[in-house]
Amino acid sequence: MDPTTLGLMGGVLALLITATVVVQALRRRAAGDLNPALLDTVRVRVRAWWLLFAGLAGAFLIGKIATVVLFGLIAFWALREFITLTPTRLGDHRTLFWVFFLCTPLQFLLVGLDSAWLQAHLGASSYALYSIAIPVYALLLIPATIALSGDPKRFLERTAKIQAGLLVCVYCLSYAPALLSLELPGKEAGHNVRLLFFFVLVVQLSDALQYAWAQLPSKHVIVPSINPSKTWEGLLGGAASTALLGAVLWWATPFRSMWVTGGMSLVVALMGFAGSLTMSAVKRDRGVKDYGTLVEGHGGVLDRIDSLCFAAPVFFHLTQLYLLYTA
Q1: Cα–Cα distance for residue pair 194/177, rounded to 1 Å
Q2: Which of 87, 100, 213 minimizes the C-alpha distance to 153?
Q3: Using one digit for the tens of pLDDT, what is the confidence trace for 187-224?
Q4: What CA–CA distance (Å, rounded) separates 133 from 128?
């Protein structure tokens, strides 16, 4: 990584240290005007950010392969949580084997392979392969293998569940490490790492800012039956704040102006909100609060990356479109 990328990561590290110290200091205060539940929520959020930052920083320092593997493991675990949440039948087990041990690793293998090598040996770029592997081949493989099991009971429901999990948890999330493969004109490889870090940072900032704005006394909940913590104040205030902060960090991106970077950050914030709300609807349908218990206070992995899953493919393709028209 180049010095600028290391400096950006150092700034985030300093913010995490400051947040940790402030939260610990506030928890020790005996003042009755502090909400213990709110402080505890902030504490576990900061802990979750520490875990994410440590994992990303370690993978970045090792290299591209480690980063792709890290996202692949996250996707595997998120898919496991999604499938576990909904009932399966014996006839689905063979299909799930192919989904977990063929489709998921193959998707990230294609993301991690060098495009030049693939072009020389297969006559296709890595993007041409990982962009269609799941939407075309895997989504057709799933209903066919379930049909071969000979169990027609709730066939459409079982098929749709596995397809949705594979699409959101694996396919969409794979576009985050795919940012490392984008060709940035006149930029060194380190700029791709910075772009990925910028994307993850904006998504996490958006989640935090939407939560903070949602604490305003005047609240207008968007969809009470799905997620009572999602308010119009949180969405609008958080999205606007994220756009401003993203614009300030324009120098960490391949975008040439603060306006473009701010617009990209705004789209990321909106898509992150859509992802969080959509996955909340799935949880409400299944009658559970969280997808798992891996992350203290915040449920499972999927509870923490739902925003990333929805924002990643949109950010990737908008960036690719921007690079195409500004080349």
Answers
A1: 12
A2: 87
A3: 665 688 889 989 999 998 998 899 888 888 878 899 99
A4: 9
